[in-house]
Each structure stands twice: as structure tokens, then as C-alpha cells.
Amino acid sequence: RGVHALDPALLNLVKRSRPRIEHKTAELADHFYTALLARAPGLRTLFPLDPHGRRAPLTDTLIWLLQRLDDRDELVRRLADLGRDHRKHGITAAHYETAGHALLDTLAHIHGPTTWTPPIAAAWAKAYAAATHEMLTAAAAERGPALWLGRVVEHRRPTADLACIIVQTLEPLPHRPGQYLSVETPQRPGLWRYLSPTEPARPDGVMRFCVRALRHGLVSPALVAQTRIGDTWRLGPPLGRLPEVLDTRRDLLILGSGTGIGPLSALVAALDTRDDPPRTQLYVGARDETELRALLAMAPGARHRSWLTLTPVIPATDDDRPSSVVGTALRGRTWRDHDIVVCG
Questions:
Q1: Which of 281, 287, 317, 322 shows the shortest CA–CA distance to 302?
Q2: Structure pTM?
Q3: What pLDDT digit, counting tens, does each position of 191-225 carry?
Q4: Which of 5, 21, 92, 119 is deepest in the core (most CB within 10 A)?
Q5: Which long-range contacts (CB under 8 A, 24 or more apart) does 51-55 make?
Q6: Which tens digit of pLDDT belongs to each residue from 25-49?
Q7: Is the CB of residue 69 less than 8 Å from the CB of residue 11?
Q8: What integer best gives the mean pLDDT of the chain?
Q9: Strands 308-313 and 280-285: what pairing?
Q10: Distance from chain centroid for Cα 232
Q11: Axis crossing angle, helix 72-86 with helix 118-141, rounded to the nearest 10
Q12: Which domains does the chain have, with CATH numbers?
């Protein structure tokens, strides 16, 4: 019933939709949410609009899944993450069924009657059923809370657009280094964003986050400028598989830019607890020296260790040095024998 049971010929039919989805993302999103809310008006609060009229990142998720139809293991992992994360909204099998009807109606709309053939429609229906099976199975297997409550206990702004926010949950939220959590804040109710703790899980439930205010963002500027001590956050379950690198036996190359240093800091701190941590090269990109110092202060795991070499990357003012993290790491050597982690 799941993704692994899908016939390759069926997936090839589904792949035919990718160009239309990629070229009609706005039309697809508008039509889908209109169709969904017409069927289930009670779901409206789950999809607040941002100032540009956009709702949840449906098209981004669809495109991501279509790009990975040939990697079924990765598909299953991603769908399982989505299913676990949807628990915080109280999503049921009936909701998935309603959304499926809205999605098929929308795909038929953007394809048109001559392209949306019965075989393609049947393929999409079976693929959607398999995907929701993976999501519901993963959600049903979870035994922990659907969400946690946390209180802001510290908020610092080392620069105008950066903030270090420390939250303490009422009960410990188990997460592994490098994972991320969805968070909802009182400043932007209904708008969930993903943040990564900068250190491994602590028994007292304290989590540190490094946040940058994006110029056109709706949530991040409010997090940086409007967060107040005592605010209550809602946090979803931990997601992501970056922790798999903790078991590597190979040397590591880690590339982090800006607030991407956050989850990498947690990874480095966890590697330091190993008896034989791998030799690790960590490149950290920042806009200037002030930002670099701020980032490293907010990410306590990214400090000097005997097995770790830290290389800061600041944009150059001349042509003698590459200004990108990747360019700096690639200059003069190869990393064929390393596992590589990139973030930010």
C-alpha cells in the first residue's frame, strides 16, 4: 500500500506532471486552497495568508517529491517526517482524503482536458494514496506529544538582524543534534517556521536558537525584533536525518553559512563526546568580522578542539581570496575521502 509498492510505469506517468507544476506554481496553489477550503472550511485557520497572498508551501513540497520519485527510500523518509509533523495540527485520514480530492481537481485544472488523461489521473490517485499511507503510518507510530510548549527565557540581539533566543520547554523535547523543529510564536500565530537548536538536547529542556531577520520574511523579523521574555512558543516534533553523520567513520568537511552554523554547532558538540571523533574541517561564512563573532558566540559547539579545524570565511575586498564558503573549501584541494555536510 505504500510507496515501495508503486509500479514504475505508474511513477513515470506521475513524472509527466512535473513541468506543468513547475511552470504553474502560483495557479496550482491558488486553485488547490480554493478547492480545499470549499470542501472543508474548518481548515481555513491552518493556512493563514502572508502579505503576498501565499499559503503553505504546497508546490515546493510537490516539486521536491517529484524530483525524488526514483529514490523511494528518501521519499518514504520525507513523507514520514511530514506525517509526524502534521500531528500538531490534528490532521486525520479524513483530512488527507479531502485534500486528495482537492489536489486531483487542481492537477486536472492545470493540465487541461486533453493532457489530464484517465491513466495519468489514476496514477496520481494511486500515488497520493501511497503517500498518505506512509504519512499516516508514521504518525500512528509516534508515542510522544504532538507538540510541546516552551517559554522564552532569554533574547539577545548581537547585531541588528541577528538574535539568540533561548527557550525552555515545560517537558524535555528529545531531539538529536542537527535536527530541526517547527515553531509557532505569539507574534505570528498560525505561521510555523523551522529552526534548529544550536546544541544537543539538554535534560532541563533548554534550547538555544540562532535566528536572522530575512529582508522580506514575515516570521523571522518578528522573531528577531519582537520576541519577549515570557513568550510561549509551540514546537513540533524533531525532524531531519542530519544526525546520521554522527556515526561516520570518515573524516568530515562541514560548510556553514550565516545561521546555518546553528545545527552544525550541535553536531560538532555531539561529535566531541565520541572517543574517536573524526578529523573535521569546519568552514564558517559570515558577512564581516562582527557577524562572525556573533555567530560563533551563539553557537557554542563551534569552538576549537584538537580534532577540529575552524576556518572563517569573510567576503574578500580583492581578488586574492574567494568570498564563498564553497569556493574557499575547494581551493587547492579535494575532499574525496570525506563525508560532507552543508548548511545555510
A1: 281
A2: 0.86
A3: 899 999 999 999 999 999 999 999 888 899 999 99
A4: 21
A5: 51/218, 54/29, 55/29
A6: 889 988 999 999 999 998 888 877 6
A7: yes
A8: 91
A9: parallel
A10: 22
A11: 60
A12: 3-141 (1.10.490.10), 148-235 (2.40.30.10), 242-343 (3.40.50.80)
CB neighbours of 7 closer than 8 A, spacing ≥ 6? none
* Residue 217 cell numbers, joined: 520574511
Distance CA 262, CA 26 (A): 32
State whether residue 321 is helix, strand or coil.
coil
Helices (H) and strands (E) counted in the chain, each on its own, are 11, 10
Q: What is the length of the chain?
A: 344
- How far apart CA 131 and CA 83 sit, in angstroms, is 10
All residues at 6 or more sequence positions from 118 whose CB lies less than 8 Å from its CB, including other chains = none
Residues 6+ apart with CB under 8 A from 276: none
- Please enumerate in sequence order all residues whose Cβ is within 8 A of that of 291, keeping only pairs 6 or more positions apart, or say none: 159, 162, 258
Rounded Cα distance between 343 and 209, Å, is: 15
The three cell numbers locating residue 89: 495540527
Per the structure block, which three cell numbers stand in for 78?
520525507
Q: Which residue type is seen at 106?
A: T
What does the alpha-carbon distance between residue 200 and residue 208 come to, in Å, rounded to a whole number?
A: 10
* DSSP state at residue 319: S
